[in-house]
Amino acid sequence: MLILIKNGTLITEDNTLSADLLIENEKIIQIEEKIESRENVKVIDAEGLFVLPGGVDVHVHLDLPMFGTVSSDDHYTGTKAAAFGGTTTVIDFVSQDSDDLIKNVRMLKEKAAGKAVVDYSFHANITHLTEQVEKDIPLLVKEGITSLKVFTAYNNRLRLQDGEIFKVMRIARDNGILTMLHAENGDLIEIMVKEALAAQHLSVEWHAKTRPSWGAVESVMRASAISAMADAPLYIVHMNAGGEVDMLEYAQTHGLKVFGETCPQYLFFTEDDLAKPDGAKWICSPPMRTSQDQLRLWQGLEKGIVQTIATDHCPFFFDGSRPIMYEGQPVAIPGKELGNGDFTKIPNGLPGVGDRMPILWTEMVASGKFTANQFVKLTSASPAKLFGMYPQKGTLQVGSDADLVLWDPTKKLEYGVAFSHQRTDYNLYEGWNLTGFPLSVFSRGELIVDNGNWMAKAGRGKFISRKPFDPACLG
Ligand code: URP
Ligand code: ZN
Ligand code: ZN
Question: What Rg, from alpha-carbon coordinates, does the chain have?
Fold first, then answer.
C-alpha cells in the first residue's frame, strides 16, 4: 500500500522543506516538491501541518518492579501513550535479574513482543559485576543492544564501585557499546537517609534533601575522569543539576566523548514541588533541583553541551487504591501511597513519555526560544544517532522507516490526563495551556493515531536491533 502525504512542511534537524512524501511498505520511498497521486495511493493532505520524524525517547521504564509494586505502564500502555505524544521509538532497560545477561535480555524481549505498539529497544543495566557478566557484555551486541547503564548510587542494589565501572567501560568501548551513567553519590545518600529517618524527617521534601545535587555533580566529574582513563565514551542520563552541565562542559572541552541527557521534569519543576500536598507525584531519582539549575540545563541544551531530552518515564499511581478507567476497564496499581508517612517508601519515578513532545514543543518552539529543527534534533535525531538507530529512525530520508508525526502547530488545548494516555491517575502538566500538538502518527508506514483516534493493535511494535556506537555520530 502506498501513502502520499501532500502539502506538508517537512522538518528535520537541519532542514525545513515544503514537499510531498511517499511511503511504501514501512519506508519513505520518495520526497519531492510535488509528487503526483496515482492509482492505489492513499493521499493525506497535510496542508498547514508540520511533518516531523517520530520522537525517539531513549529512557523509559515499562513494567519495572519497584518497592513492592510495578511501574504502571507496561509495554502496551506505555508505547501507546508514547504514540499519542508523537514518539515512535522508545528504549527501555533490561534489569540484571541474573548474571546471565542474554537470558535477561531474551526474557524482556519476549515480554515486550506481544505488547509494544511502537518500535523499541533495550539498554542493559549492569548492577553486579562477575566474570560471567564481563564475558556476557560483548554478547549484547549480537542481541542488538549497544548501550548499558551503570549506577554510582543505590548501594547494595544497583551500584558498581569505581573500579568496576572502569572495567565495564573498557569492555563496552572494545565492543562498540555506549556506557550510560546514573550519577549520584550512593555512600552519602545512605548516611543522609539514615540520619533523616532517625530524626523523624519523613516528609516528601526529605527525598531531595537527602540526595543533594553535589553528589550528582561529583559523580559526573568522577565518571568523566574514569571515561578518560578508560578511553571510553560516556552518556550521562537524567541530568538535573547545573553543576553537572559545568562538569560535562569541562569534560568536553578536554576532548572527552561525554554526552548528556536531561528530562522535562528537570526543566520545568523544582524541589519546591515536593513540598506541595501532593508532592509525592514529583518524586523521582535524581530529584528536582532549583530554578538556577533549570537555567543552566536550558543553557546546556542551547549550547549543545547536553544533546538529548528523554523522559525517564517510570509512572506510578498517586493513589493506587482508587481505580482509573483504562480502555473501558477499571485499573488500580499500588503507587505513591505506599510511602504515605515515609518518603523512603515512595516509588521513585514519574510519567512523561506521552507528555515530552507536546510540552517541549509549546515551551521551546511555540515560545520562539528554539527552532523546530532544534526540537527535532534534541528529541529525535541526536538520540537516534547516539543509540545506533540513525537514519532508520530520527529523520525523514528516502530509506528511513516511515515513522512520522503530522503536527498541528496551531492546535491549542488545556493539557492533562485526558490527553496524555499514560496509565496513571495524574499528569504533572495538568492544566497547562499548549500550542501545537500531534494530530496523526505513523509507525513504519502504519497510521497508528489518526486525528486523535487509536488505530493500532498490541504487538505491532518491533524490536530494533541497534548498530554499535559511533564516536563520530554527532559529527
Ligand atoms: O526515579 C526514577 N528515575 N526511577 C527510574 C530509575 C532510574 O534511575 O532511572
Ligand atoms: Zn537512573
Ligand atoms: Zn531511569
Answer: 21
pLDDT band at 1 (very low <50, low <70, confident <90, very high): confident
- The model carries a pTM of 0.98
pLDDT given at position 219: 98
For residue 447, give the nearest of 38, 120, 43, 19 by alpha carbon: 43
Amino acid 397: pLDDT: 98
What are phi and psi for residue 253, nearest 5 degrees? -70, -15
Sorted by where each begins, the domain ranges of the chain are 55-366
Who lines ligand 1 at CB under 6 A? Answer: 61, 182, 238, 284-285, 312, 314, 348-349
Fold of 55-366: TIM Barrel (3.20.20)
| Residue to probe by mutation, ligand 1, list 149, 219, 314, 346, most atoms within 8 Å of CB | 314
The span from the CA of 69 to the CA of 53, in Å, is 35
Alpha-carbon 93 to chain mean position: 11
pLDDT tens per residue, range 382-394: 999 999 999 999 9
Name which residue sits closest to atom 4 of ligand 1, judged by CA.
349
